[in-house]
Design goal:
The complex is a heterodimer of chains A (413) and B (608).
Chain A lengths: L9 E6 L2 E11 L2 E5 L5 E5 L3 E6 L22 E5 L6 E3 L6 E3 L3 H5 L2 H7 L2 E5 L10 H16 L3 E5 L5 H11 E2 L5 E4 L12 H14 L6 E5 L6 E6 L3 E3 L8 E3 L6 E4 L4 E3 L13 E2 L7 E5 L6 H10 L2 E6 L7 H8 L6 E6 L12 H8 L3 E2 L5 H14 L2 H8 L14
Parallel strand pairs in A: 6-9, 6-10, 10-12, 12-13, 20-21, 21-22, 22-23
Antiparallel strand pairs in A: 1-2, 1-5, 2-3, 3-4, 7-8, 11-19, 13-14, 14-17, 15-16, 17-18
Helix pairs in contact in A: 3-4, 4-9, 7-8, 9-10
Chain B lengths: L10 E10 L17 E7 L10 H13 L1 E7 L17 H13 L3 E2 L2 E2 L2 E4 L9 E15 L2 E12 L3 E6 L2 E5 L6 E7 L6 H15 L12 E9 L5 E6 L2 H27 L12 E2 L1 H4 L5 H8 L3 E7 L13 H10 L7 E2 L10 H10 L7 E7 L4 H15 L6 E6 L2 E7 L6 E3 L6 E2 L2 H9 L5 H10 L4 H10 L2 H11 L2 H11 L6 H12 L8 H6 L1 H12 L2 H13 L1 H7 L4 H12 L5 H18 L1
Parallel strand pairs in B: 3-10, 13-18
Antiparallel strand pairs in B: 1-11, 1-12, 2-3, 4-7, 5-21, 6-7, 6-20, 7-8, 8-11, 9-10, 12-13, 14-15, 15-17, 16-17, 18-19
The chains are: A alpha/beta (413), B alpha+beta (608).
C-alpha cells in the first residue's frame, strides 16, 4: 500500500461497514495508520479495510520546520550536536524521532538566545549515545580544538547514556583548553512541554559563554524540579539513574557549582581556571585494545583470562576495596611488564586500597595498579588515551597520577 | 418573557463525559486511591512546543508561561511515572477491557489497535505537558427514548492532576489524581436543548456504570459540553461538575451566544468595518493622577501606564442588559494576568465623573456610537494588550468566536481558543496495542446487562423495583447487590444504602453493620446510629471480625479430637492448638484462637 499512497495523503477507506477518512501516516506491521481530522491516529488491520480513495497530499504538509537564526561571528559559543535525545525532535505527525537540523529554531525563540550571547550551531554527527566509539571522541576532540582556535567556547549536546565517557575522553585529549567545553543532554525529549532540554541547554550555553571554567564539564538538572542545574567535572561524573532528570551525580568529589533558574552561575573553588598563556595541546589518538572488566563471584576463569590476554591494558572493577579472587592474581602477574592493569572499585564511592587485606597485597606484588578513587569508566578512557599517546612506561606512571582532577587521595564526603 | 432557549433557536449540543476507573492507574502500577499521605514536592516550568494557534494567542500563551511555576505535591499513590521521571508502563489490561465494554455498550466499532497519542496541555495539570489518550471505539449510538444520539468516540485516557491552590504565578497541584484511567464518551452534537443534555448525561452515566470499576464519588464524573446555535460557532465548555449544572450552564451560554449574534448585527448596522478596528493607546497618567480615583491611583503607584483608547461603535454593547462585550474583553486580558479594564458603559463610577468622561471623549475624538476603555498596565505589555483587544473586537463582527470556555458556577469564562488537531502527536513510549479477537470475544461475553436487565436482576434478589431504579440512578446498585448477596435483607439494605449514599471508603462499615444485622446481633433500627457514629462501631468491629464461621470451624477441630482431650485433659491443648493454627494462621489473632480452643477443651472436660 505504501508504494502508492504518500505521507499525509487524504484517504477514505471502508472498515467494519463504515467509512473513515483521514490522512495517511505510515504502516506498522499489519497495520495502516491514519490520522483522523480530530488529530487522533487510528490503526487499521490491512486485511480488514478497503481503500476507496487516496488523494495527493497538500503542499502545506511539506516540512519546513527549521531555519538558521544567527550567522558566523567571532567569539561566542558553538553548540555541537552529536545525537541523543537532546539533538532530536519528534515529528508531530508520525511520531518518528528525527535528528535536529539545528538547535536554535527548535529550542529557543531568538529573543531568549540574544540574551545568552552569540550562538551558532553545528551538527557533527547524529548517533545514539550507545553507538559512540573512541573514533567519535577523537572527532569531537579535533572539532573542539579547531573551534577553540577560532575563539569559541563549546557546548556538546550529547546522549546521556555515555556522556560521561565522552566528557572524560575530551578532558584527557585536550590539555589546557582555552575555552569552556560543556556537555549537556536531556532525559525528556524536547517535544515535551516538560522537557529538561531547555533549561539544561540554556545553562550550558551561559556557562560556556561567560565562565572561566577549565574543566570539561557536564551540566544537567540537580533534582526533579527546575530550580538548579549541577555542574559536574567530566572525569568525576556518572549517570546514576535510568530516567530521572537528576541522573548525573559527581562521585568522590563535590560538584563544581550550580546554575539557578534565572541562570545565575555559582562556581565552587574546586574548579580549574582557564589560562590562555600556555598552549592548548591536542592528543588525538586512542588505544582501542583496552578493556573494562567487571569482577563478580563465580566469574569464569576462561572468560576473565581471555579478556586480559586480548587486551593491551585492562581496568578491573573489583569488589569492595578493589579485590579479585586470589587464584587470578598469580595469572595476572605474568603480564607485569607487558600490560597495564589498573584496579578500581565497583563500589564507585570511596577509594581502592590494596594494603588492608592479604589479597590486596598479593595484587600489588603481581604488579596491579590501584587507582585510588578514580571511577572505573574514567580509568578505562584514561588508559586508552595513555596507551594511544604515550610510551608504555610513561603511560603506566601517569595512570595513577592526577592529570585532570580524576584521581585524589583526599575525600571529604 | 419568551425563553431564550425555545424551539426557534436551533441549538446543537454535544457532550463529553468522563468516567474515572478504580483499581490501578493507567500507565503505572500505583493504586487509584491513596491513603492521603503527602510525601514531598517538586516544581517545574512548561513550554509550549507545538504552535497551531494564531500568533496573538501564541504570544498570550508565551507571556503567561514565562512566569508560571507549577508545584506538584507528591502523594502516596504516585511514582516516578507521575513525576515525569520515568517512561509510562504498558497500560493495565483491565482498563482497556473496561473501555472496550463501554464502547460495546454504546454500539461502537472497536479499533483494531490502540494508538496512544499525546495531547499538548500546558496548564500544568499534566507533569509531562500532555495528556495521553487513545480512541477505543468510534461511530456508535446511544438510545435516548426514541432518539438516537450519535457517539463519535470512546477514548481511554489519563486523568489530570487536581489543582489545590493558585498564588501569584504559582499553581499548586496534587498528584493523587494524575494518571487515573478515564473513559471519555463523546456524543455527536445531536442534542437540541439543555434539558435534553442533562437527561442524556444522566442516562448515559447509568449505562456506563454497568461496567463496574467506575468511581462513584461526586468529582469523579465531569462533563465537558460543546454547543453552537444557528449563526454562531462551536464553543467548548470545560469542567461542568454536576448534572444539574449542565442545564443552567447551557441556558446561560445560549443567552450569551444569542447576545453576541445580536451585537454583530448591531455593529454591521452601525457600519463597523474590519479595517476600522485599530486600538491606539494614549498615556494620560499625568492627568489621571489628579482624578479622585483609587483604582487609577493604585495603578500608577504600581508603576503602570494609564492608557485610554477608543472602542469603535461599541457604545451600549459593553454592558447594557444582555449585552456584555466588556466582560468578553476583560476575560481575554485575564489570561495574560491583567486584572481588568474600565469601559465607558460602566461610567460614571470608580471616581471617574462626567467631566472626566467628556474630557476623554474629546481627547479621543469620539463620535456618538464610540465607546472607550481605560487600562492600567506596564508599557511592556501594551503591544500584546492592543493585539488582544483588536482581535476580540474584530471577532465581535462575526458573532460567536469559536473558543474553549471554563464553567465557573453557572456561567462560563474564556480559557483559550479552540485547540486544533495538530496539538496531538503519537506517544512514542507505548507501542501499538492490538485488540485481538480473543479480547473482543471475552469482553462481549462479560458485557454487563443493560439498565432494564439490571433492574430485573436486582428485583430477583428481592429488592423493590423503586429502590432498584433509584440505586441505578445513584450508581449504588453494585454495592447494594453485594451487600444483599452476602447478608440478605434486600428491602432494608436497598432503602438504607440509597438513603445514606455511601462512598467507596464506607464500604467496610456497611459490610460490618449488615453482617451484624444478619447475625441478629443488632436490630435494623440501630443501623443509622452505628453508621453515623463509627466510634461505637469500633467495639463491634473487633468482635465481629471473629466471624462465627471461623469460630465454629475451630470448635469443630477441637471436637474432632475429643478422645485425645478425654485422655490427656488440659495437656491436649498444645497438640490441638498446633493443629488449629495450621488452618487458622493469619485468619484470626492467635490470642482469640487460643481462647476458643481452651474454652472448647474446658467444655469437653467438664461435660465429662
Amino acid at each position: 500500500m505504501s508504494e502508492t499512497i504518500k505521507f499525509m495523503s487524504k484517504v477514505t477507506l471502508k472498515w467494519k461497514g463504515i467509512t473513515v477518512s483521514g490522512r495517511y501516516i505510515n504502516e506498522i506491521g499489519d497495520f495502516i495508520i491514519i490520522k483522523l481530522d480530530n488529530g487522533y491516529n487510528m490503526s487499521f488491520k490491512k486485511d480488514g479495510i478497503e481503500i476507496i480513495e487516496a488523494l495527493e497530499p497538500d503542499a502545506q504538509f511539506e516540512n519546513n520546520n527549521h531555519k538558521k537564526v544567527n550567522g558566523n561571528k567571532v567569539g561566542g559559543v558553538v553548540i555541537i550536536g552529536t545525537g541523543g535525545t537532546i539533538a532530536s525532535y519528534v515529528d508531530y505527525k508520525t511520531g518518528a524521532v528525527k535528528p535536529l537540523k539545528n538547535f536554535q529554531e527548535a529550542l529557543f525563540n531568538s529573543e531568549e538566545l540574544e540574551t545568552l550571547g552569540n550562538i551558532e550551531d553545528e551538527i557533527l554527527f547524529n548517533i545514539f549515545s550507545e553507538d559512540m566509539e573512541p573514533d567519535h571522541w577523537i572527532e569531537m576532540a579535533r572539532k573542539a580544538y579547531e573551534r577553540m582556535k577560532e575563539g569559541k567556547a563549546l557546548v556538546f549536546a550529547h546522549g546521556t547514556d555515555t556522556m560521561s565517557f565522552s566528557a572524560s575522553a575530551l578532558s584527557f585529549m585536550i590539555e589546557n583548553n582555552h575555552y569552556p567545553i560543556i556537555f549537556t543532554g536531556s532525559q525528556r525529549s524536547s517535544d515535551r512541554p516538560s522537557s529538561d532540554a531547555y533549561f539544561n541547554l540554556k545553562g550550558a550555553i551561559k556557562l560556556a559563554a561567560t565562565s572561566d571554567l577549565g574543566d570539561v564539564s557536564v551540566v544537567m538538572h540537580s533534582d526533579m524540579s527546575d530550580d538548579f542545574l549541577s555542574i559536574h567535572k567530566g572525569v568525576r561524573v556518572r549517570k546514576m539513574h535510568t530516567s530521572r532528570r537528576d541522573a548525573f551525580k559527581s562521585i568522590n568529589d563535590i560538584e563544581l557549582g550550580r546554575i539557578d533558574s534565572m541562570l545565575n552561575i555559582k562556581l565552587n573553588d574546586n574548579y580549574r581556571k582557564i589560562k590562555r598563556e600556555n598552549d592548548m595541546i591536542l592528543y588525538d589518538k586512542f588505544e582501542k585494545m583496552v578493556s573494562l572488566i567487571y569482577y563478580y563471584p563465580g566469574i569464569d576463569k576462561e572468560i576473565f583470562y581471555k579478556q586480559i590476554d586480548k587486551s593491551k591494558g585492562s581496568i578491573i572493577a573489583g569488589t569492595g576495596l578493589g579485590h579479585i579472587k586470589n587464584e587470578f592474581v598469580h595469572y595476572l602477574s605474568q603480564y607485569r611488564d607487558e600490560k597495564i592493569i589498573g584496579v578500581t572499585s565497583q563500589c564507585l564511592y570511596g577509594s581502592v586500597n590494596l594494603n588492608v587485606y592479604s589479597t590486596g597485597r598479593n595484587m600489588l606484588s603481581a604488579g596491579l595498579i590501584p587507582l585510588k578513587d578514580m571511577l572505573p569508566e574514567t580509568a578505562y578512557v584514561k588508559l586508552g588515551f595513555l596507551l594511544g599517546n604515550f610510551e608504555f612506561q610513561r603511560a603506566k606512571e601517569l595512570l595513577n597520577t592526577d592529570m585532570r582532577g580524576e584521581i585524589s587521595d583526599r575525600r571529604t564526603n | 418573557m419568551r425563553s431564550l432557549t425555545d424551539a426557534q433557536t436551533d441549538v446543537r449540543i454535544g457532550l463529553e463525559i468522563h468516567f474515572q476507573l478504580k483499581g490501578e492507574k493507567l500507565f503505572c502500577r500505583c493504586p487509584t486511591e491513596g491513603k492521603g499521605n503527602k510525601l514531598g514536592s517538586f516544581w517545574r516550568k512548561l513550554r509550549a512546543v507545538s504552535g497551531e494557534v494564531s500568533s496573538v494567542d501564541k504570544a498570550a500563551v508565551m507571556e503567561m508561561e514565562k512566569e508560571r511555576e507549577f508545584h506538584y505535591e507528591i502523594t502516596d499513590n504516585s511514582c516516578l511515572v507521575e513525576f515525569d521521571e520515568e517512561p509510562p508502563h504498558t497500560p493495565n489490561g483491565e482498563n482497556i477491557d473496561a473501555a472496550i465494554k463501554a464502547s460495546l455498550l454504546l454500539n461502537c466499532k472497536i479499533v483494531d489497535a490502540l494508538n496512544f497519542m499525546r495531547k499538548i496541555v500546558i496548564d500544568g495539570s499534566n507533569t509531562s505537558g500532555f495528556q495521553r489518550t487513545a480512541i477505543v471505539g468510534i461511530n456508535g449510538y446511544f438510545e435516548h427514548g426514541n432518539k438516537k444520539i450519535g457517539i463519535s468516540t470512546v477514548c481511554l485516557e489519563e486523568e489530570a492532576s487536581r489543582k489545590i491552590d493558585e498564588k501569584d504565578n504559582k499553581i499548586y497541584y496534587s498528584l493523587e489524581r494524575l494518571g487515573i484511567p478515564l473513559i471519555e464518551v463523546s456524543t455527536s452534537p445531536d442534542i437540541s436543548s439543555p434539558k435534553e443534555a442533562r437527561e442524556v448525561a444522566k442516562n448515559l452515566g447509568m449505562l456506563i456504570r454497568r461496567i463496574g470499576k467506575i468511581q462513584r464519588d461526586v468529582d469523579s464524573i465531569r462533563q465537558d459540553l460543546n454547543i453552537s446555535i444557528n449563526g454562531g460557532n462551536r464553543v467548548e465548555i470545560k469542567g461542568v461538575q454536576s448534572l444539574s449544572a449542565i442545564e443552567t450552564v447551557l441556558e446561560n451560554e445560549i443567552k450569551r451566544q444569542k447576545s453576541l449574534i445580536d451585537i454583530s448585527q448591531i455593529l454591521k448596522q452601525r457600519g463597523l468595518n474590519q479595517d476600522d478596528i485599530r486600538i491606539e493607546f494614549i498615556d494620560i497618567a499625568n492627568e489621571a493622577i489628579k482624578w479622585n480615583s483609587n483604582i487609577i491611583r493604585k495603578g500608577i503607584e504600581q508603576g503602570n501606564k494609564i492608557f485610554i483608547f477608543k472602542l469603535p461603535k461599541l457604545k451600549g454593547l459593553l454592558k447594557n442588559g444582555n449585552y456584555r462585550l466588556g466582560k468578553e474583553l476583560a476575560d481575554r486580558l485575564r489570561v495574560i494576568g491583567i486584572g481588568g479594564m474600565i469601559h465607558s458603559d460602566e461610567l460614571p463610577a470608580y471616581g471617574i465623573n462626567e467631566s472626566i468622561i467628556s474630557w476623554i471623549r474629546q481627547i479621543l475624538n469620539l463620535e456618538e456610537n464610540d465607546a472607550f476603555g481605560i487600562i492600567a498596565i506596564p508599557e511592556s505589555k501594551s503591544a500584546l494588550v492592543k493585539n488582544i483587544l483588536e482581535e476580540r473586537v474584530a471577532q465581535s463582527l462575526g458573532g460567536v468566536p469559536a473558543e474553549t470556555r471554563a464553567a465557573i458556577g453557572d456561567e462560563t469564562r474564556f480559557m483559550r481558543p479552540l485547540p486544533g488537531s495538530s496539538r496531538m502527536y503519537p506517544e512514542t513510549d507505548i507501542p501499538l496495542i492490538i485488540i485481538t479477537k480473543e479480547m473482543l470475544e471475552k469482553n462481549i461475553k462479560d458485557l454487563p446487562k443493560g439498565v432494564d436487565e439490571t433492574i430485573k436482576k436486582l428485583e430477583s434478589l428481592g429488592i423493590p423495583k423503586q429502590e432498584a431504579m433509584v440505586s441505578l440512578d445513584l450508581g449504588l446498585d453494585e454495592i447494594i447487590e453485594e451487600i444483599v448477596k452476602k447478608y440478605g435483607n434486600p428491602t432494608v439494605a436497598s432503602s438504607f444504602i440509597n438513603r445514606v449514599r455511601p462512598k467507596e471508603k464506607d464500604k467496610e462499615k456497611l459490610n460490618i453493620i449488615f453482617n451484624l444485622l444478619n447475625q441478629g446481633k443488632i436490630p435494623k433500627e440501630a443501623l443509622d446510629t452505628l453508621y453515623q457514629y463509627p466510634e461505637k462501631l469500633e467495639e463491634l468491629i473487633t468482635s465481629s471480625k471473629q466471624t462465627p464461621q471461623l469460630e465454629n470451624r475451630i470448635r469443630e477441630i477441637v471436637q474432632a479430637r475429643r478422645e485425645l482431650i478425654l485422655e490427656r485433659g488440659e495437656n491436649a491443648f498444645k497438640p490441638i492448638m498446633g493443629e488449629v493454627m495450621k488452618e487458622m494462621r493469619g485468619k484470626l489473632e492467635g490470642q482469640i484462637i487460643s481462647k476458643i480452643v481452651r474454652d472448647e477443651i474446658d467444655k469437653i472436660i467438664h461435660e465429662k
